[in-house]
Amino acid sequence: MKKGQLPSKICPVCGRPFEWRKRWARDWERVVYCSERCRREARRQRTRSALSDEVLLNHEQQSSRGRGSVVVPYRVQPQR
Ligand SMILES: [Zn+2]
């Protein structure tokens, strides 16, 4: 085993390379982000885009149904 030859990856959120750490020994394969902060940031972005897709879809469905139908109010739960 060579020293100083730790595997590394590039974090897609901050774009910086990060090295293997002991706490990732068990699931290094699944580690994608350099830190908990970046992981959360990526999740936040994904959630936001998924939510806007949903709103868009809902809007399209409502407009294609045309007038005269009962419009169910679409409520967005505020995030805490
Ligand atoms: Zn990062």
Task: Please explain how this structure is put together.
The chain has 80 residues and is mainly alpha-helical. It has a domain at 8-61. It has 1 helix and 2 strands. The chain has one helix spanning 36-65, and strands at 8-10, 17-19. It has a two-stranded antiparallel sheet with strand order 1-2. A hairpin with a 6-residue loop joins strand 1 (8-10) and strand 2. The protein is rod-shaped, with a radius of gyration of 21 Å. Bound molecules: zinc ion (ZN). Zinc ion is lined by residues 11, 13-14, 16, 33-35, 38.
Quick summary:
Helix content is 38%, strand content 8%. Strands 1-2 form a two-stranded antiparallel sheet.
Kindly list the characteristics that best describe this protein.
about 80 residues; binds zinc ion; mainly alpha
Radius of gyration: 21 Å
Share of residues in strands: 5-15%
Helix content: 25-40%
Order of helices and strands: EEH
- Which outline best applies? rod-shaped
- Largest sheet composition: 2 strands, antiparallel
The averaged pLDDT comes out at 80
Blueprint of the fold:
Elements: E1 8-10, E2 17-19, H1 36-65
Antiparallel strand pairs: 1-2
This protein binds zinc ion.
Zinc ion (ZN) binds near residues 11, 13, 16, 34 and 38.
